[in-house]
Structure formats: structure tokens, C-alpha cells
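Journal club side-thread
Mid-discussion, someone asked how the predicted structure for our own chain would compare to the paper's figures. Pasting it here so we can look after the session.
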Amino acid sequence: MGELYYIILLFLFGLIFGSFFNVVGFRLPYNKSIVYPSSHCPKCKKRLTVWELIPLVSYIIQLGKCRNCGQYISIRYPIFELFTGIMFVLSYIVFGFTPDFIISLTFISALIIIMISDFHSMTIPDEVLIVSSALIIIQFFIFENYIMALLSIGHGLLAFLFMWFIKIIGDFFFQKESLGGGDIKLMFLIGLVLRIELSIIVIILAAFIALPFALLVLFIKKTNIISFGPYLGIAAIILYLFQIDIYNIYNIILYRM
């Protein structure tokens, strides 16, 4: 019963934080306050009541519409609330109540805000990258030791430089901007936690995940411009929570050869 209690509690906390992450991800790219004005309908501007702000539940009860004007609410709100709840639970299942659990919540929370922001505005806020990177570095200093913390910073810089190199190559071949600055800076955060070896795998996996969506956007909107940050975030979460070890991948490949 104890385990189930923790899982339910973390899921509910995840829903609440997911609702907050939606606000941050939607407002921060436009330099809007995440506190004022309070949540409201974007069409009729009616301030939402407490009962209209219950994560996931309010959306289902209201059938995805504003109670005042009938304007449809973006499906992204409940999706990211649910996603955050699931990620909080998975973090507990993978790490338990350990220091790694705290690092996991910080890392995944930052990635979710970045995914929301990049999907909505094609912008990755520097504030999220700076604050989350600083928090994780501090956590490494506290939970690990200064050597591990400094090594992690080095891996973050290597991942940043590797992505920057990919951008230079891409810009040369496509004769236009191939990657945004936010994607490059995001790789520092990912490299900080996953190290350079897995960071390279993250880029490859993200490209495969993004490909069908890029083709769909090309077919519907006749453009090949998509946000890459969300796919980097998804790939990083997959590799992180599944605890995939790059050396195990090498061993599997060598064994099959």
C-alpha cells in the first residue's frame, strides 16, 4: 500500500506541476509574467475559477471548452499535465527516494517546460536552461563530489560544441539556418546529465522521432521548419529513464558482430 500511496501522490503532484509548466512554457517566450494576470480564457478573457483549473479533470468535465464562451482549449494543456504526472511516477519507480530522484525531477521538469515552449512558440527560453543547469550543477556538488560535478560540466560543454558543429555543417549544406541557438544550448543541459556519449545518441534518436512529424508538416503546411527541441527532450527522457548505458550498447553491437 505504501508504494501505491507514493505513486498516486507523485502523479497528483505531477499533474499540478504540469499545469504550472504549461503557464511557464506558454508565457515565458513572450516575456510575460507567470504570475499576473491569473489564468483566463484567451478569447473572452474571463478569469478561470478554481474549479476550472483542476489539472486534467476540468478539461474532461468541460469537454475541452471554455464554460463562458465555448472556445476550444488547446489539447496540449491536458497532454502535458498527464505527461508530467507520468514522468514524476516513472522517476520514482526508476530512482526511488534517492538524490538521483531529485536530479531527475529537475532535469525532466526543465525538458517539459522546454517542450511546451518550443512547440508553442519555436523558442527555448534561456531562463529555463540557465536555472535548470545551475540547479543540477549544485545538486551534483551536493550529492556527488566536486570532481563529478566538474566532469559533468565538461560533458555538457562537449555536447554543446558537438551540436554547434552539426549546425555549422547543416548551415553549409542547406545554405540556411539548420538549427536554432536554443537547440544548441539545450545540448549543454542534456550533456550535463547524460554525458557526451549518450548525448550523441539523443541527437540521433531525436532525428528519427522527428522525421515522420517533419514529413507530416511538409505535406500539410508545405514547410520543412519544425521545432527540434521537443524531440531532443523526448529522446533525452527515454534514454535517461530507461537507464540506457552507452557501454551496454557497445557490448551488444560487438556481441552481434
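Post-session note: The chain has a mean pLDDT of 86.
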